[in-house]
Automatic annotation (TrEMBL):
Keywords, ordered alphabetically: Signal, Transport
Organism of provenance: Streptomyces nigra
Record-stated family: Belongs to the bacterial solute-binding protein 1 family.
Signal peptide location: 1-33
Protein name: ABC transporter substrate-binding protein
Basic and acidic residues composition-biased segments: 34-46
Highest taxon listed in the record's lineage: Bacteria
Length: 459
């Protein structure tokens, strides 16, 4: 599914906007000198608490279930948001751990007559499927009011199906970042690259210093789709990106060949990926991050690609964001640097006063501010005080996200039917895992991607 704004923007305008956003992001990230120590204040640096802005009903005795695939720190931090809702309303909220793909998990719950009240869906495609299956319920007037006050039109639109609002994008992600071990770069004399060719030069410089350039979490297929999407958006441009996302052009298109060929310059280069292809395919996303920031000045890899949420895992590696761990925007492969976003939307499955109240709370700056202070999180809610974020790197990322307004492209695989873009061992995830194993097979990978896409999209 596409936002209305994405449909209506012209190719030239989208390119220009992407260039502006990418430039601002590059400037903001490279300007970050280190972790801002005043972020230890309760509000992340401003010295004042954000005022409560949303009115919630009393819900004493009400019980709600919220399902999400979040684990570890991410889950623990979200539970603190739910605890505040409980405190304000008197309701009891239970977090239900879900498995990927969440649509399958929800299907079993619905079939058993026990759907959660709200599900946090990580794909617009999943929202559409929930609506098509008549599981999802539209948002009420209070939630809509919060959305309209606090979100850009683009973030509202990607939560809509057939013009009706079903999703509240509570969590956003900047998925166009590469994190690096500052000490490994310093020892190698490596510089932050701005273009794809410079990235390859930087990788060789790091390799020559005795450190493997890249860590890749290939056990999780979604990390591989994110690699592809950044290259494709920058190289092929926003218009083709939108067409491929809707399967209006085939995966056998020459533009896909070009992107896979570029990707093979990293994945196919001997000893450029920690553990080789076999090791990468056994490495999950959290490990791909932590192994980049442990081992002193001899980490398993110097760089790891992924979004702002990698900060949670960097912290688990006991590295400081902004000093030990630094970041640069995903390099320009074509005309402009890519700006790829992702996110998780709250969708009501069991309509009730309590469920609508929780959706309203999650659309408010009150909820997002709580999790913003805890780190490893970005909100598309433009009413969240930027000072709530705990360090300068994250504040600048949040500002770049809000300043982008509607000028972003949502994660392509998340827009696809779940069977193609969001299922372990199937579709795009599996095809790119196979490509990581054999990056010379560009044509075969394209054929497999097209066959799976045609089956999933029904065209």
């Amino acid at each position: 599914m596409h936002s209305t704004s994405s449909k209506n923007r012209t190719h030239r305008a989208a390119r220009a906007a992407a260039a502006v956003v990418a430039g601002a992001l590059a400037l903001s990230l490279t300007a970050c000198g280190g972790d801002d120590k005043d972020g230890g204040k309760e509000d992340g640096g401003s010295g004042k608490e954000s005022a409560s802005t949303v009115t919630l009903p009393k819900l004493d005795g009400e019980t709600l279930e919220v399902a999400a695939v979040w684990t570890g720190t991410e889950q623990a931090n979200f539970k603190k948001v739910l605890a505040e809702f409980e405190k304000r309303t008197g309701a009891t909220v239970k977090f239900v751990p879900a498995q990927d793909p969440i649509i399958n998990f929800l299907g079993s719950k619905v079939a058993g007559g026990q759907p959660p009240d709200i599900a946090m869906l990580p794909q617009p495609g999943a929202i559409k499927q929930a609506v098509d299956k008549k599981w999802a319920k539209p948002l009420g007037a209070e939630a809509l009011k919060e959305l309209q006050e606090n979100y850009s039109q683009g973030w509202q639109d990607i939560g809509k199906v057939d013009g009706k609002q079903y999703g509240v994008y509570y969590k956003a992600a900047n998925k166009s970042l590469i994190w690096y071990n500052a000490k490994a770069f310093e020892n190698a004399g490596a510089a932050e690259p701005k273009t794809w060719d410079e990235l390859l030069t930087t990788a060789q410089t790091v390799y020559d210093s005795g450190v493997t350039p890249f860590s890749v979490g290939g056990a999780d297929g979604w990390t591989l789709t994110d690699w592809f999407e950044n290259i494709y958006l920058s190289q092929a441009g926003p218009e083709k990106y939108d067409q491929l996302a809707k399967h209006e052009i085939k995966w056998t298109d020459p533009s896909v060949k070009d992107a896979l060929t570029a990707l093979a310059q990293v994945w196919g280069k001997k000893d450029y990926v920690a553990g080789g292809a076999k090791g990468a395919l056994q490495t999950d996303f959290p490990t791909s991050v932590t192994q980049t920031f442990t081992g002193g000045d001899q980490p398993k890899a110097a760089m790891v690609y992924e979004g702002d949420f990698a900060q949670v895992n960097i912290t688990q590696a006991k590295a400081d964001v902004g000093t030990d761990a630094k970041v640069f925007p995903f390099p320009t492969v074509g005309d402009t640097a890519p700006v790829v976003s992702g996110g998780d939307a709250a969708v009501i499955l069991e309509d009730s006063k309590a469920a609508q109240a929780l959706a309203t709370f999650l659309a408010s700056p009150d909820a997002a501010t709580i999790q913003a202070k805890l780190g490893g999180y970005l909100s598309p809610n433009k009413s969240v005080d930027n000072a709530a974020y705990p360090n300068e790197v994250q504040r600048r990322m949040a500002k770049a996200l809000i300043d982008a307004g509607d000028d972003f492209r949502f994660d392509m695989s998340d827009q696809a039917p779940q069977a193609f873009g969001g299922t372990p061992g199937k579709g795009e995830w599996k095809a790119l895992q196979d490509f990581l194993k054999n990056p010379s097979d560009v044509a075969g990978t394209q054929q497999k991607l097209e066959a799976d896409a045609a089956a999933a999209y029904g065209n």
